[in-house]
Hints:
By secondary structure, this protein is an alpha/beta fold. It has 2 domains: 7-253, Type I PLP-dependent aspartate aminotransferase-like (Major domain) (Aspartate Aminotransferase, domain 2), CATH 3.40.640.10; 257-392, Alpha-Beta Complex (Aspartate Aminotransferase, domain 1). 38% of the residues lie in helices and 14% in strands. It has helices at 7-13, 39-46, 61-74, 85-94, 111-120, 139-142, 165-174, 187-190, 224-237, 243-253, 256-275, 294-300, 315-324, 355-360, 377-392, and strands spanning 78-82, 102-106, 127-131, 147-153, 178-182, 200-204, 218-222, 280-284, 307-312, 341-343, 367-371. It has a 7-stranded mixed sheet, with helices on both faces. A 4-stranded antiparallel sheet has the order 8-9-11-10. Helix 8 (187-190) links the parallel strand 5 (178-182) and strand 6. Helix 13 (315-324) crosses helix 15. The protein is globular and about 75 Å long. The protein binds pyridoxal-5'-phosphate (PLP). Pyridoxal-5'-phosphate (PLP) binds at residues 84-86, 89, 110, 153, 157, 182, 184, 204, 206, 216, 218. Pyridoxal-5'-phosphate is lined by residues 84-86, 89, 110, 153, 157, 182, 184, 204, 206, 216, 218.
Amino acid sequence: xxxxxxxxxxxxxxxxxxxxxxxxxxxxxxxxxxxxxxxxxxxxxxxxxxxxxxxxxxxxxxxxxxxxxxxxxxxxxxxxxxxxxxxxxxxxxxxxxxxxxxxxxxxxxxxxxxxxxxxxxxxxxxxxxxxxxxxxxxxxxxxxxxxxxxxxxxxxxxxxxxxxxxxxxxxxxxxxxxxxxxxxxxxxxxxxxxxxxxxxxxxxxxxxxxxxxxxxxxxxxxxxxxxxxxxxxxxxxxxxxxxxxxxxxxxxxxxxxxxxxxxxxxxxxxxxxxxxxxxxxxxxxxxxxxxxxxxxxxxxxxxxxxxxxxxxxxxxxxxxxxxxxxxxxxxxxxxxxxxxxxxxxxxxxxxxxxxxxxxxxxxxxxxxxxxxxxxxxxxxxxxxxxxxxxxxxxx
Length: 395
Ligand SMILES: Cc1ncc(COP(=O)(O)O)c(C=O)c1O
C-alpha cells in the first residue's frame, strides 16, 4: 500500500524504483525474463520466499507500477494487470468459481461478459441469473444456495442504470457472497466500490484509463486472499498485460483526474443542452435530476461520468441518419477517448438482440450513446445541432 492519500499524488508519485541510470520518467521494461543473481536467489524466488521479477507473464516493473497505482486509488490490497478488460472479467470469475456455482449478474452487462455467461460458462456447469439493476427488490429472491458471486456494472452500458453499491455491499455481506464490480465507466476517480464492501473491482483499462484510444488492457484489484487465487490462475493461464501497454497505462493515470473532470464537465453541459432540445425525446445522464437513480448517483459518484444517451425523435431510421450526418465525432465502437464517439446501439453493438431483449436492457430504437470527449464543448454542441437539423428532413 502506498503512503500517499491524494488521488493526484498517487497517480504521479507511485513509481518503480529508479535504475542506476537515474531516469526521471520510468523506462519501458520490454523484457520477457529477468536474470537471477545466483542459484540461491533463483530458488528462493521460485519458492515464494522472496519477491522479485522472474518472467513477465508473472510480473514486470511497468505492470507492477500500474497495478500499485490502481490499488491505491481503489483502496484495494492487491491486484494484477491483464491483457484486456475481458481477460480481467473472465479471470476474476474463472479463478474463483467452480462447477456447480451460480453467479448473480446485473442485466445489461457488456456484450462479451454476456457471451462468457451464456456460451462459455455452461461448458463448465457454472450457472447465472440476470437481475434488473432498477428492481433491487428482486435481487435477494434470486440468490440461490449455490450462489457464490455477484457481478455488476454501474452505470450500465449503454442504458446508464445505476445500482446502490452500499445496499449491494450489505446484501453480499448478509449472504457471504463475493461482490465483483466492473468499474470501467467511472474509473476510481469517480467511484470506489471497495468502500461499499466490494471484494473485487475490475476495469477495462482500454477505456478512460488509457483515455486516448491507444492500447487494450485490464486490471483486477481486491482482497489479498482472493487475489492469491486469481494470481495463481493468471500466472498459469497467461492473460498477462504487455509491459509496453503497462507503461502507457501507468503514464495515462498521471492525467486521469484532469481528464475525468473535463469529460464530466463536457458531458453535463451537453446533457443539459439536449434536455431542452425539441428534436430530443429523452436524455439520460447520471447527474441530471431526471435520471431515475439520480440520488444514488449523487451518493456514490463524484461526478456524472463522460457517457450520456439520448433518444432522438423519429426512431431507428432517424438514429442511423443522425449518425450519418456527424462529421467531427468518431463513429466507433470504443468509449472513454479524448475524441467524442457516437454509437447507435440498436443497429450496431446490440443489433443481435431481439426487440424484447433490447427493451429489457433499456435500448430504444432511436437511442444514441455519446462518449463525450475533450474537444471544446461549443464544437461538440455545434456538431450535434447540425446533425439533428440535417437528419430532421429525413423523418
Ligand atoms: C463495461 C465494460 N467492461 C468490459 C469491457 C471489455 O474491455 P476490453 O475491450 O478492454 O476487453 C468493456 C469494453 O467496452 C466495457 O465497456
